[in-house]
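Q: Protein A?
A:
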Amino acid sequence: MQCPLLYRFRVIDRLPQKPSEAATRGTLVHAVLERLFDAPAADRTAPRARALIPGQWDRLLESKPELGELFADDGEGERLTRWLGEAERLVERWFSLEDPTRLEPAERELFVETELESGLRLRGVIDRVDIAPTGEVRIVDYKTGKAPRPEYAEGPLFQMKFYALVIWRLKGIVPRRLQLVYLGSGDVLTYDPVPADLERVERKLLALWEAIALATETGDWRPRPTKLCGWCDHQALCPEFGGTPPVYPLSVRPAESDEDVQGTMGPVRAEAGRAVALEGR
């Protein structure tokens, strides 16, 4: 949905991407908020959450040593200290938005997967699932950035509807509430889906899948310039910046239509030139 060519670079060509401070900070904050719920409710305090940050950063470095490159030239450790301080402020802000002493999540970092009647498999990882005593389900997603302006809110909301669709098809339950917690700006956005919403999402996903399948078979992955291009790691290979993409690694067939039907919804693995699933994260 963002850029078909970027999808190709990430999923089919599997080009490496440099780690970024912002994305890594988001991973760190998510890990801290997940681990905080290991403690008894009364101990889920801001000081305890802050104290988790150094240990979780060490675990990230252990699992992904390449993240150390972010601060390789930071001899005095000033940038790292400032970066960790920014993570602390995001964690602290969460306590002004939710009270973890009153929450008992049913699931954290929950992997879900289901197959639609069409054969399309959907899978994703949900930050948190809350279940009320009455059985109502709330899906919660943490965002370490700022809440988007209303005209740009559909993208993050589509991600949440994707999760809701998976839960509905997997468990037969429409989540009562979808909740986006924006730690960067201190906003909480909610949406209460109904079956008609999720049916529309399913139709859109099927259309995206057809576009992915067509582009995979034809090799026709076109760039879609936006303001986000400035943060792309692959400008040197993008025609929009005077670059040439690498030779397409899969066999192709002539396109049957000139229509621009490119699109994507998260990573898709290709097997013998055929993508097999849509993932949301």
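Q: Protein B?
A:
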Amino acid sequence: MTEFQKTAVLGAGVIGASWTALFLASGRDVAVHDISPNTEKNVRDYVERSWPTLEQLGLVKGGSPDRVRFAKSAADAVEGASFVQENVPERLTIKHALYEEIEKHLDGEAIVATSASGLTLSEMQAGWKDPSRFVLGHPFNPPHLIPLVEVMGNASTADGVVEAAERFYTAVGKVTIRVNREVPGHVANRLQAAVWREAIHLVKSGVASVEDVDKAMWAGPGLRWAAMGPTMLFHLGAGEGGLAAFCERYTDSFNRWWDDLGVLHLDQDIAKTLVSGVTQEANGQSTSDLSAHRDALIASIQKAMAPLRAN
């Protein structure tokens, strides 16, 4: 708890507010800055809504919602902070302007991590005079519920900075993976993009409805993937023979499926089909109600799995 005691969150939309709740729960001080005039109310409301779930998951470790302050500028927010989580809109001009504003106000040992999902680390590094303590720290939304953080540095990153960022994220309850090579979308977004492309293809080609494709995921492989990744699951799927036996047994089947996967681009016609399908699936429920239901399900799964993950 002595490392990275003072933190800052720049950009306090849904992702920034979620990070704020998690950092507070871990017992840290958080300085928040966002240009929205409603920032303080929105963040405090979000933290209040999230706190019972954080308690349920055992992530409240001496923390308090009162240990947050709201800074009028990004420069003020990062003063004295040892870890900064940046979540401003994914436009290079905005990010570069922010980095130029805060760089001279940062402590020498402070780490700045960006939540960016669509921009590459090297693109963003161009906004720094010295990018050696700037890393990728990409979460899955909402960060206080979904454990994953993708962490990346490169040749311009100072020795030990990536490892220090990983220690921080682990300390606040996250699960980290290391991204070794720069690719658009990093790792997890590319995986879900590949699955969604085939989900859309199945709908477009009339194989199943939007609702049934969604149902096939959450009632089928989604449950298994919450426990283990696909390669490990296939390793278990062949019994004692493991992955080698699985590959020998199913090579022809998988090659046939892969050859038949859809290749498409999201356009207005496809979007209309998907919107119509998901509207039917929602069955009149608001997005806020559906989000609350999603969060409750995720929290229950996380709570149930926590003792097993610890072993």
